[in-house]
UniProtKB/TrEMBL annotation:
The keyword Glycoprotein applies. Residues 152-226 form the Interleukin-12 beta central domain. It comes from Takifugu rubripes. Keywords: Disulfide bond, Glycoprotein, Signal. InterPro entries: FN3_dom (IPR003961), FN3_sf (IPR036116), Ig-like_fold (IPR013783), IL-12 (IPR050676), IL-12_beta (IPR015528), IL-12_beta_cen-dom (IPR019482). This is Interleukin-12 beta central domain-containing protein. The gene is il12bb. Residues 1-18 form the signal peptide.
Length: 353
């Protein structure tokens, strides 16, 4: 198979004109990098292939014949503004396909429009409004959180064995966006990843020893395109900063006062080495666990707690956090207590707020 290559000018690895550069990304893909969006016209040199020097070569753009026609093994195409495309070469206007290249345009500015910038579902925060407080419903304020900066990519891991997932959300106006290339590395070593079928997430497996302290961060990079526009997003993190424990196991209640639970099924053993802290909250009946009218809030490293409140109807909520890194909290689990009955269950995603 013929491989596309760029005409290399001035002996460099890319062609550059003032602040504009043309760089290969992967086979059959080149990126025209411009400093900002505006009226730009840049010439991009292309070669069909070394094997076609003595043959008549005709070019098409996105499968359509060009007007006026472009002929020859070596050509120069004019790319205007954000109008890239797929340029293919053939033996005749309707003849055998020989080769192709796709030209994407990438702005060097920090403007990002393809993926949404969002805050994580559950971020790192500490409860600061009261410690072991029992207060009137309206007087115990909501959680004061040390803000987690929003981002385009969010990653999490259920434990330290190596699997982690990263996800992103397309902007409403860019539903057609697709992943062109993604890569995860640690200290220059590739981490295998598999893209989800929907193209909005990836599952990776880091094979570093879970008992060793991390010396190097993981660097995750994704190249996403919408039509001819290309954007690159990166995220650097340590696994310890994204580990988020799963839902707690065996949450139960004894005499409507003593609640007990177990470590998440997905959490590593021994618990003495992989310790957890547990945050519990008591909120009013029919209120979500993150309600700003909490009756009682505190943390513990024990797996049981006795509730002593005057309210007869309430919700007991509990979730886990790595004891040593104080990373992201896991999902809430809860018990609903009423005069008639009491029941414990993990919360659905809509109830975890």
């Amino acid at each position: 198979m013929n491989f596309l290559f760029l005409v290399v000018l001035f002996g460099g690895v890319c062609y550059a004109s003032s602040d504009v550069s043309i760089e290969p990304l992967v086979d059959h893909v080149v990126v025209l990098k411009v400093p900002h969006r505006g009226r730009t016209e840049e010439e991009v040199p292309l070669v069909c292939g070394r094997d076609n020097l003595t043959q008549d070569v005709f070019w098409k753009k996105d499968g359509m014949e060009l007007n006026p026609p472009l002929k020859g093994n070596r050509i120069t195409v004019l790319v205007e503004e954000m109008e890239g495309g797929n340029y293919s070469c053939h033996l005749s206007p309707g003849g055998q396909y020989l080769n192709h290249t796709i030209i994407f345009i990438q702005l060097d500015s920090e403007e990002r429009v393809i993926l949404k910038e969002k805050s994580p579902e559950e971020g790192r925060f500490r409860e600061t409004e009261c410690v072991m407080c029992v207060c009137v419903f309206e007087s115990c304020g909501g959680s004061k959180r040390s803000s987690v900066p929003p981002g385009h990519i969010h990653c999490s891991a259920p434990n330290y064995t190596g699997p982690f997932r990263c996800s992103w959300t397309r902007a409403d106006s860019r539903s057609n966006a697709a992943v062109l290339l993604l890569q995860a590395t640690r200290n220059g070593q590739q981490i295998p990843c598999e893209l989800d079928a929907g193209g909005s997430g990836v599952l990776c497996q880091d094979n570093s020893c879970s008992y060793k302290e991390e010396q190097h961060h993981i660097l995750f990079t994704i190249h996403v395109h919408s039509y001819s526009r290309l954007e690159t997003y990166t995220k650097a993190f340590y696994l310890k900063d994204i580990v988020r424990p799963g839902a707690l196991s065996n949450l139960q209640m004894d005499n409507a006062k003593v609640f007990s639970w177990s470590y998440p099924d997905s959490w590593e053993k021994p618990c003495s080495f992989y310790g957890l802290n547990f945050q519990y909250r008591v909120v009013r009946h029919n209120h979500p666990c993150d309600s700003n009218t909490a009756i009682l809030v505190n943390t513990t490293d024990d797996t049981k707690f006795e509730v002593n409140v005057k309210a007869k109807k309430y919700v007991f909520c509990v979730r886990a956090q790595d004891k040593y890194t104080q990373g992201p909290f896991g999902p809430w689990s809860s018990c609903v207590v009423t005069k008639e009955e009491a029941g414990c269950q993990p919360l659905s995603p809509g109830q975890r707020k």
